[in-house]
């Protein structure tokens, strides 16, 4: 990594690239696979890496199909399931949350979303990242209550049915743990490097609506949110955020929240660090001053070089990571679509630049539309890898003009004393044999 | 149902309602639940139906919590799972696909999405509707091939790795079986009434890109798509659609397609009837004329009153259904948010009107933004139920100006001879005790 070149101005960024690649023929390196009656192999520009692909190698040798008929076309498949909740194919069993085998225990622990295997911006509920402080409680929704009290006209106790009766909204937002990935952590895969981030469509009640109902004192400045888990995780939320876009959420991607995501109720404060989005929410205490709880004093503060800590650093700043190709993967020479995700707690992503030479030169990537505020944004850039060692890296800019920093830049600003809010770029090194590794590892 | 009033012009529709309800106090019917130190019950406007809610009834009796601490707050919960793919809470076990117990067999059968339990527009993969013609094949993706041949310059055989190397896009679109719900079917629940529709974020390759690569003859007018299932399900797709927004899809809601949805590859022709989106796609034959396959002649055609059949009726026309409250549910008197989904195979939903008097008068519902083309669109309308019998029904209009018909209107146009393309409104009757049933049942 050339750290200097990573901080060059946006003025040096080339216009959106890839059009010249799109105009060329992707299949130029090979004749038609079915040029007579029978197959030889798919070896176009997108399939030229025979050595990297066992399937392509087999195809090269002359596949049985067609005209050979595979077994699954010969007999009826599985009938409609008696257990009517679908699961992924057994062939995808390795696509799973990434759990560190070295953790001493798994009650206060985390599991990373397999970013390198995911497409689009929606994270399926089964693969949404997890971070728990006291394990996952098994809450009976009929017994669960949300208490709102303190500086309000009408302190209130809500059942889940009460809350579901309120006017609702649905919004697509990312969530990210502020410890994603920590400092000095240079994960081998995209999951290990930055997998404590995910994105879903959330449905619930605007907190503003509920607060208007129970009458919040105009003098109240903070709301202390408490979870019903054994950790009773407690965070202080500024009243301004509660009256802006905060939600009391009961559904995620259409269905009720999963236990790992706070079933039956969680707080959502879009763009704020993960653990402020309190799961298993049981209490909102409306007060004048923050609680200075464990999770906003000894933890989740940012120790600086001078020994002082930045506190209440709510916002997850702009970040991006290339998810394909990424660490642990191997690519063949030739055309390659670089794919990744970008996000910002401050709003929309305005653009993402990609470098294939470790930050010397940048090209603007295409963003998948629509770009939503405080949501994952998928970016893509066509590139032709010439087979020489390279370092690929992405850099996000959000609508406030904030530019994602390099790690060197971030450390210069904030030292290596901290644990949280590392939003630096993740460069991947490509070796001559096509294997990718974390450029910092 | 007053069929005449159902076809009145949009001019008689009242402006967006609900604002006056929002301004009133939702909690007006009850004192503060925590007005001293301890709880009594949540009995505001959204919680006034004590008899309908065992939880509320229990709260009424004086809940133990707070200050009583529930068991899940006292001991650590479940640690991070060793099987790192999440599942819904056991308390949600009844939220499942709806399978007809009366089907003679389950290889050529269907399972309905539980619309009455879902929020937002994304259907979670485990609850996406299913329709199979020869069971669900268990396909090894490394062995799977897509053959494209016929009127092309370079007939080709693609592996999954080849296809994943092509430039990709992600799009949110609905899918609906054209047999949803059939005629003479008046399901008791929203799932049974119209549950063969779902919506997801799909990722794959634009078919146009692949066709440009292999060089399609300008004379070619149709593409015959064939599945690798035992039914070898075969449908003819107009070339115009293939060069417009058709996709070769390998991912759904971030992860690889589920087996029930065509793993490892399906065709997506947004807005066209479900079975044209051929699952387990193994072949595209580029030709001059349609195949006149079983699924576009003896099946999936629309028999009219005169004995002639409408053929190649691709488009799923504008439709909507109220999902909450809906058949099988029970509501208390008072404020109620009417929620539902609308969609159109022709593009975006422009508006949805809701009637609470069986179609005499209509109010415009709020649409959840952003409204996406050929995607489910969530609508909502605040309403205060006075406890008298009522019939609630929704009516969608799409951006072409097409208005969803009443059943009477549709039958008048097309007779009851057909099986497919019933996009009529679904009215729900509310009895004095708050119970909802299908108004046609």
From TrEMBL, chains A, B:
State the encoding gene.
soxC
List, separated by semicolons, the cofactors it needs: Mo-molybdopterin
The residues covered by the Moybdenum cofactor oxidoreductase dimerisation domain are: 313-424
The GO molecular function terms of this record are: heme binding; molybdenum ion binding; molybdopterin cofactor binding; sulfite oxidase activity
Instruction: Tell me the ranges covered by the Oxidoreductase molybdopterin-binding domain, including all copies.
Output: 133-291
- UniProt feature, compositional bias: Low complexity: 52-63
Protein name according to UniProt: Sulfite dehydrogenase
InterPro entries, sorted: Ig_E-set, MoCF_OxRdtse_dimer, Mopterin_OxRdtase_euk, OxRdtase_Mopterin-bd_dom, OxRdtase_Mopterin-bd_sf, Sulfite_DH_SoxC, TAT_signal
């Amino acid at each position: 990594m050339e750290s200097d070149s990573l901080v060059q101005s946006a003025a040096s960024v080339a216009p959106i690239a890839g059009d010249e690649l799109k105009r060329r023929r992707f299949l130029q390196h090979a004749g038609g696979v079915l040029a007579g009656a029978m197959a030889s192999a798919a070896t176009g520009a997108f399939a030229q890496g025979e050595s990297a692909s066992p399937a392509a190698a087999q195809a090269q040798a002359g596949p049985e199909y067609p005209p050979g008929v595979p077994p699954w076309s010969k007999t009826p498949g599985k009938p409609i399931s008696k257990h009517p909740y679908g699961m992924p194919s057994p062939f995808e069993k390795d696509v799973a949350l990434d759990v560190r085998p070295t953790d001493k225990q798994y009650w206060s622990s985390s599991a990373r979303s397999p970013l390198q295997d995911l497409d689009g911006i929606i994270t399926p509920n089964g693969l949404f990242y997890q971070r728990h402080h006291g394990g996952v409680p098994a809450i009976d929704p009929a017994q669960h209550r949300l208490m709102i009290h303190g500086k309000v006209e009408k302190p209130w106790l809500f059942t889940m049915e009460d809350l579901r009766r309120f006017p609702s909204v649905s919004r697509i937002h990312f969530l990210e743990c502020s410890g994603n990935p920590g400092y000095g952590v240079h994960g081998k895969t995209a999951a290990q490097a930055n997998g404590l981030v995910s994105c879903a469509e959330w449905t619930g009640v605007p907190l503003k609506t509920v607060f208007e109902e129970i009458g919040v004192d105009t003098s109240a400045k903070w709301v202390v949110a408490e979870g019903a888990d054994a950790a009773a995780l407690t965070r202080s939320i500024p009243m301004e955020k509660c009256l802006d876009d905060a939600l009391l959420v009961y559904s995620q991607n259409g269905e009720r929240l999963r236990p790992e995501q706070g079933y039956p109720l969680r707080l959502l404060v879009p763009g704020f660090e993960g653990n402020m989005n309190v799961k298993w929410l049981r209490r909102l205490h409306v007060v004048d001053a923050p609680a200075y709880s464990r999770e906003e004093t000894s933890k989740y503060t940012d120790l600086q070089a001078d020994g002082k800590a930045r506190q209440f650093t709510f916002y997850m700043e702009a970040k991006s990571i290339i998810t394909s190709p990424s660490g642990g993967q191997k690519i063949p020479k030739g055309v390659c679509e670089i794919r990744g995700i970008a996000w910002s707690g401050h709003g929309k992503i305005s653009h993402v630049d990609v470098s294939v030479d470790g930050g010397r030169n940048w090209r603007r990537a295409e963003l998948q539309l629509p770009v939503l505020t405080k949501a994952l944004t998928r970016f893509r850039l066509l590139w032709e890898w010439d087979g020489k060692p390279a370092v690929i890296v992405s850099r996000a800019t959000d609508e406030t003009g904030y530019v994602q920093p390099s790690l060197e830049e971030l450390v210069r600003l904030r030292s290596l004393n901290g644990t949280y809010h590392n939003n630096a770029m993740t460069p991947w090194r490509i070796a001559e044999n096509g294997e990718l590794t974390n450029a910092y590892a």
